[in-house]
Amino acid sequence: MATRLSRFARAALGLVLACPLPSAVSAQEVEPPRAALKVCAPPFNLPMSEKDGSGYENRMAELFGKQLGLPVQYTWFPQRMGFIRATLRNNETDDGSYKCDLVMGVVENFELAATTRPYMRSSWAMVYVKGRGLDFIKSQADFKQLSDAQKQKLRIGIWDQGPTTEWVYRLGLIDQSTPYPIMSGDARQGPGHIIEEDLVKDDVNLTFAWGPIAGYIAKNMRDHELVVIPLENERGEADGQPWEIRFDFQIAAAVRHGEDAWRDEVDALIAKNQAAIDAILAEYGVPLLPLKASQAREDDDD
């Protein structure tokens, strides 16, 4: 279960892209001059990206485009299976060019593309509405130490898979939980819909979300005050076997394998603009953790 759920954590971040890959771009291929910064993104994925340009990843792309002296052009594709194949690796166009050259917001060292240096580190978070009987939960430790009477008050909304689902299972709280499918049939339904709909309506009284989503909704909600508690990684042992649940992730941008010069150029843009990126993320209420040293990247010779 842990392995399956660990893989799914990427899906919850918009990374459910496990599809057969076409052959990689040759590392020797000459990259043509760019007439535009071509970005692929989900059109209904606030706070990350939105078709009207109001997401923080849209803001970052505009910042990069301005510094490159290039207009930003989008190819919109829903956050679904096959995203990378249908966008970054898709050159089924009239002139044979790729539909985009950059995807914002993937997990560092994402296997389906070459990733840049990370620009953000955040974590999953626990969320409930303040003043509805759960204010005794002030920390991750409090949630782990609930009395039996307190547990009976819980009506937890969980994704059908994910790191927080595994954590709830290990805490013995599955019976207090209602599973929700991570993949909605409606591409316009954003990933924070449990909070915006069922949590607010009190159909569930506690749920979990990727930190940037939880922070954004909490900052912009007017009729209710949300308590957002970022989660720290957990380790333990069960039946003599150690386990670990990872809640925090470093987020980078993605380019095609083999386009090393382009990746280096985006790396330089991120490094140069890290302070501006942090300011943008703060505007959206993103709970940020200090960036860790970037993990060593394997050669893109696949």
Secondary-structure element pattern, one letter each:
HEEEHEHEEEHHEHEHEHEEEEHH
Regions with little confidence, pLDDT below 50 for 5+ residues: 1-12, 14-28, 298-302
Shape: elongated
CATH architecture designation of the largest domain: 3-Layer(aba) Sandwich
Question: What would you report as the Rg, rounded to the nearest angstrom?
Answer: 20 Å
Task: Please report which band the strand proportion falls in: under 5%, 5-15%, 15-25%, 25-35%, 35-45% or over 45%.
Answer: 15-25%
The average pLDDT score comes to: 87
Helix-and-strand structural type:
alpha/beta
CATH topology of the largest domain: D-Maltodextrin-Binding Protein, domain 2
How far is the first residue's CA from the last residue's CA?
29 Å
Per DSSP E runs of 2 or more residues, the count of β-strands stands at 14
- Give the domain tally: 2
The share of residues in helices is 25-40%
CATH class of the largest domain: Alpha Beta
Discrete helix count = 10
Pick out its properties:
302 residues; alpha/beta; D-Maltodextrin-Binding Protein, domain 2; 2 domains; 10-stranded mixed β-sheet; two-stranded antiparallel sheet
Description:
This protein has helices at residues 2-15, 56-68, 83-86, 140-144, 148-151, 163-170, 193-199, 211-220, 260-272, 274-283; strands at 37-41, 44-45, 49-50, 72-76, 102-107, 114-115, 120-129, 156-159, 177-180, 206-210, 226-230, 234-238, 241-245, 248-255. Strands 1, 4, 5, 6, 7, 8, 9, 10, 11 and 14 form a ten-stranded mixed β-sheet that branches. It has a two-stranded antiparallel sheet with strand order 2-3. A two-stranded antiparallel ribbon has the order 12-13. A hairpin with a 3-residue loop joins strand 2 (44-45) and strand 3 (49-50). The chain starts with a helix and ends in a 19-residue tail after the last helix. It folds into two domains: 2-120 and 250-283, Periplasmic binding protein-like II (D-Maltodextrin-Binding Protein, domain 2, 3-Layer(aba) Sandwich); 123-245, Periplasmic binding protein-like II (D-Maltodextrin-Binding Protein, domain 2, 3-Layer(aba) Sandwich). The protein has ten helices and 14 strands. It has 302 residues and is α/β, with parallel strands linked by helices. Helix content is 29%, strand content 23%. It is elongated and about 65 Å long.
